[in-house]
Amino acid sequence: MFGFFDSQEKKMRDNASNWLELASKVWHYRRDRLGAKDAEDLTRKRQELERLYRDRADAAKLKLGIESLEGVLVRTGGAIYPKTWLVEYVEFFLVAAIVILGIRTYFVQPFKIPTNSMWPSYYGMTAENFPPGSDAPNLAARAFRLVAFGAQRYEAVAPRDGEVSLALLVRGDSVSLAYTKRAGRSWGIIPSRVKEYTFYVDGAPVSVRVPADFSDNDFDELVIGTFFKDRKALEAQVRSAEQAGRVEETSVKLDEDSDQYYVALRVPVGRSVRTGEPVVRFDILTGDQLFVDRVSYHFMRPRVGQGFVFRTDHIPDIERAFGDQYFIKRLIGVPGDTVEIREPMIYRNGAPIGGSKAFDLNAGRVSPYRGYFNMTADPRYAQSQLFKGDTITVPARGYLALGDNSKNSFDGRFWGFVPEKDVIGRPLFIYYPFTRRWGTAR
Prior knowledge:
Elements: H1 8-30, H2 36-54, H3 59-76, H4 85-106, E1 108-112, E2 126-129, H5 139-149, E3 152-157, E4 162-171, E5 174-177, E6 180-186, E7 190-201, E8 204-211, H6 216-227, H7 231-243, E9 248-253, E10 261-273, E11 278-285, E12 289-293, E13 307-311, H8 316-322, E14 326-333, E15 338-342, E16 345-348, E17 351-352, H9 357-363, E18 392-393, E19 398-402, H10 412-415, E20 418-419, E21 423-432, E22 439-440
Antiparallel strand pairs: 1-12, 2-11, 3-11, 4-5, 4-7, 4-10, 6-7, 7-8, 9-10, 12-21, 13-14, 13-21, 14-19, 15-16, 15-18, 16-17, 19-20, 21-22
Helix pairs in contact: 1-2, 1-3, 2-3
């Protein structure tokens, strides 16, 4: 590390040692393929440099010995020496990849939190809205935000002058924006899934695509904040447009790979834009990225209250909806524990649960924590549990994990228990983005 301060003699001795190691490697790998003269020359030159090194010759003599040996190595080294820059780079990156994969598999694994089920302990992707007419970060600020927070700009630009309309799914009293899941690319390179939301300006469609893991509810709130005071104002606009006969029915595929269509309503919002103006404009900030300890749980039992990372390929309701992924929740129960939710608290083995500050904050509904909630009836999930009044027992070789953001968490209330074999580890350190949450994981 501090070789810059070494003497010339010390540097040359280190150089000579490296050349001797290379000559030994060539000899052992290629001596059966060398002619008698080449073998003799290689042995003699190597021995001469060894003698100079052993006798602590000065830098000038060592340099002459190295140059003499190099001439023989160029002639006898084959694929070992000399190497092209391409071979050296390939070897370097191959070794680096092996080391990184080994560390990732057995010791520490990087993990990105996509959703806000553990908010506010850990953040998933969040949006910062810049409605039309408001100031947005300039190019320099955007570059800084990209580096510091992983912020990427998304916008839909009006193709013509006219009034904006939204495509909405209306189910009873529930109103949400319609979207279609499609194949896309992350950072313009990596294949991924995206949600495509379509707006209409004077009937002309314009779309914006966001990561598939970005919360439907968060996007709805972003659009509502662009055009309305609140969700009630959106619902009032839907009723008003229906009474005026200004609502059109259209069909929407929720997934481009599915044959199933849904009826959506195209509803004008009562606001117009001009050609080239943004219909919506916002940044999505990356979710917390952290290192996960994969070692500890080989030697000790997971502890209630810890952050808890696991695979999902043996949990049918998750695998069916999201495929094989890594999830992070908070560990609530270990084998043999009895668990009950009495809103806003969790009871474990008959007493208020302990082991994490997040439990206390949720129990007291200390803002922004909102407490824990019982499961409500949902026929889509056969393993659903923890309904009001339910007390459940965690089975052998299973674990119960819930999100800190109970109101908006797809967790063990929906899909049951985590199999012991799918446990990965516990979060160690939030290394990105560079926010106040940077540091030791909670």
